[in-house]
Structures are given as C-alpha cells and as structure tokens.
Amino acid sequence: MGIMTLKGLVGVLVLASTGFLAAGCNTTKATVDTFAKFTSSTSPGEWIDADGVIQESQKARLFTAVAFENIEQDIARGNGEYLTSLAVLMKVPPGEQDTFRTRSQSNYPLLFVPDRRTAESMLGMLTSMRQDLRADSQQVE
User: Model confidence over 113-123: pLDDT tens digits?
Assistant: First the structure.
C-alpha cells in the first residue's frame, strides 16, 4: 500500500507541477511536452528516494526537463539564473562557473541541433563538456 500511495502522490505532484508551470509562467507547450516525456519514460523510483525527495543524481535532469527553453535562452546569452542554477545542480564549483557559462554559449550550435534538440541531449553534452574541462585542467596541473 505504501508504494501505491507514493506512486499516486508522485503522479498528483507531477500533474500539479505541470499545471502550475503552465498557468504561472511563460511556459510553452514544448516545455510541458518535454517534462511529460521525461516523467513518462522514467519510473518514479529512479528519481525519487524512499523519503519522497528527488535524488541528488536526478536534480539536474529534472530541472533541465522542466526549464529547457529558459536554459536555452540563458545559454544563448551566456548568462542567466537558469544557467547558473543548472551549473549548481551539476556541481560546477563557483570558480569554474564563468568558464562553464562561456563554454556553454560557445557550444550553443552543438547543444541545440534541430534534430536532437532535447533536454536529455543538451544535458548529456554539457556533462561531457564539463568532464573534458576537468580533464584539461588536471593536465595543466
């Protein structure tokens, strides 16, 4: 019964969140669709722990699914609260965030290729770029 209640609660929270996002901000159908695809392809147990809290490893992924278009706009500008929030969720240290933002902006065409323009693809590429950046900084040391 506990698992059924948790799944029901998660479903209600997802629907309520989507409704609040659509009503409370400038959210387009594409963002809602991205979030719906993300949540429908992922079972709640993969991103919510036993206490009902989003797992640390899934926070950037969920945020990216919900705020995809806003993140895209921030990356195009090279700065903004959504890009900064994503950097924090990806655990980019404060001293490396300027480089992260600059590198994200310079790679905009690769991050948002029309035929692969998804939150998952963008996050995967940002994660890969960040790992490359770490490898480069370790070679310098």
Answer: 888 889 999 99
Task: Tokens for 30, please give them.
Answer: 């594409």
Q: What is the pLDDT of residue 37?
A: 55
Radius of gyration of the chain (CA): 16
Burial of 61 (0-12, 13-18, 19+ CB in 10 A): buried
Cα–Cα dist 62/103, whole Å: 22
- Distances, alpha carbon 102 to alpha carbons 9, 121, 127, 128, in Å: 40, 19, 14, 15
Residue of 32, 37, 31 whose CA lies nearest to 71 = 31
The reported pTM is 0.64
Secondary structure of residue 1 in the 3-state scheme: coil
The parent domain of residue 81 ranges over 2-140
Which DSSP string corresponds to 102-135? HHHHHTHHHHT-GGG--HHHHHHHHHHHHHHHHH
Q: What total of structural domains would you count in the chain?
A: 1
Residues facing residue 54 across a β-bridge: 48
Residue 24 has pLDDT above 70, yes or no: no
Residue 11 clears pLDDT 60, i.e. is over it: no
